Amino acid sequence: MPDTLSDMRYDENVFAVVTAYDLKNKASSALKLPHNSKWLRSAVGGVAETPTIDSREATPAASGDTPSEDDEPHAADRLIVTFDKLLLDCPSGLQFGTRPTSSHILLGHRGTRGISARQYNIVVDEELRIWLHDYTSTHGTAVAHDGQNEEETRKKEKWILAFGPGMETSFHKITVYSSGLAIRIEFPNHESARSQYIKNLKRFFDRQNAHAFDRSDIPTLRELEVDSASTTQAPSEAQTPSQRLVYYKDKLIGTGAYGMVHTAIRTRDATVVAAKTFTRPANKRGLDEADPRWLMGIRREFAIMRDNPHAILDFHETPEPMIVMAYYPRGNIADAGLMDDELYVSALGQILDGLSHLHAQGTVHRDLKPENILVETQPLFKVVIADFGLAKVIDTATLLTTFCGTLKYAAPEVFPGISDGHGPTADIWSLGVIGLEWLYDIPAAPRLPKVKDKQGDALDRSWNRWIKLWSAKLIAKVRDEDDDLVIQILSHMLAYEASDRWSAKRCLEQGFTNGLFRRREADDLVICDDESADPSSDGSGRFRRSQALSPKQGPVEVTVTPVPAGS
């Protein structure tokens, strides 16, 4: 048995270290039960419990030596679970509970309140990932990672504790709660993944697997799903805390005025997802109301995304509103780097397809831009529209602070003084600008209005002139391009008057008619028809990024005639 915790990290016979963690001495008392003695490693160091010299002897001098390796800082009694003992009998993995005949580690005597005969067990799967299962307890278990989800008690559930050996772990402090009894569990050899440790893990898995067909206590995935509420419930049918799935937030991948986006891990199946949390607005009236306006907006976004062809996964309202979405490691298309024209055409078609669906449901995105388009390249290329439902009509104050690559995609009618409102064709304009930028580049935007000394109507008029000039430059750019399959669509997307623009459905139909788009057999998503990208007989190509507008040369100024003020 190794003498120090640091030594244990290099002893490949060690599977797990279990330490008492609660403040009421429940776990500490349980770990010291005689049944657990074969695993027990008592804390050493500290003050001697009995005298070591006679009362008349002189007090020995301090040794002056460095502390003994037995003088462990923050020492605590712990159980050291080793493979050599565990593998003797482990049909259900490492079992915790109150029944001595079935438990490797006792959490109390039979009759201990809130703890079952078979409370939970720790197992290894075929990928050598480590899991905790609570399939048979009466009162449930909670598993916290770095303090998250301490109150999320579940029954008939499982939690991921560690990914495969050698993989960087996201779980640094794992604490397991059972009716007030808390223990800390670590797997000190798992990340280093030394060869003998991996062999021991495989033997552990084989011993479990050999008994798997004889066990009837393990619920099927379907039974787990029935026990939990559906992950696609409507906001009016919000899941109760005891039903909803559990997620652990991991790395921060995005921030904004709305809140933050983290990668997160779904405990039941170790799926990595994206979790979008929302910051409660400051100085907001009605914070104690059941449904303040900001929460209603979040519910609206959830409802919109739930009905999107690329549906979200889950929605929690407490302890903080959180929308769980699929995670796209490549991020948004603006950060994905320059792609082939065929992929940009596929993205254009897929977004048109998504907008066609949304607009048919009466939903307008209102903030379409490359940063809101997520991209996935493996196993197949696809894009997903993100951030629904929270964008609002741009007001004067917003114009002063949010340009930075956003307003150049906004439709003219979004700006103050242009229109009383806007509808689905505002998204069509935005996507037209995006498509033009992807495949042909766009001209340089006009200088922003000098708004320092302007207010009210004067400021609105400045932005009115700016968007008219910018719109005219974009429209002129489309007209200057040679006619091709993409321009045939963009020319009807970038029309100044909203009523003159094609709908998403009509744009999509045009792409199928002229041979630009087709649907991929594997998933029915819209992609570029490969033949549309082949050079024509004269070698000119049926669509191609303009050489004069190559990204290497930067944007090109074009001569425009501003839209008349009365238009």
TrEMBL record:
Region of interest called Disordered, as start-end residue ranges on this chain: 50-73, 530-567
InterPro entries: Kinase-like_dom_sf, Prot_kinase_dom, Protein_kinase_ATP_BS
The protein's name: Protein kinase domain-containing protein
Key word Metal-binding present: no
Pfam families: Pkinase
Gene Ontology BP terms: intracellular signal transduction
Keyword entries, A-Z: ATP-binding, Nucleotide-binding
Cellular component aspect of the GO annotation: cytoplasm
SUPFAM superfamilies: Protein kinase-like (PK-like)
Amino-acid positions noted as binding ATP in the UniProt annotation, renumbered to this chain: K276
Sample GO molecular function, one term: ATP binding
Protein kinase domain boundaries: 247-513
Entries under Gene3D superfamilies matching the protein: Phosphorylase Kinase, domain 1, Transferase(Phosphotransferase) domain 1
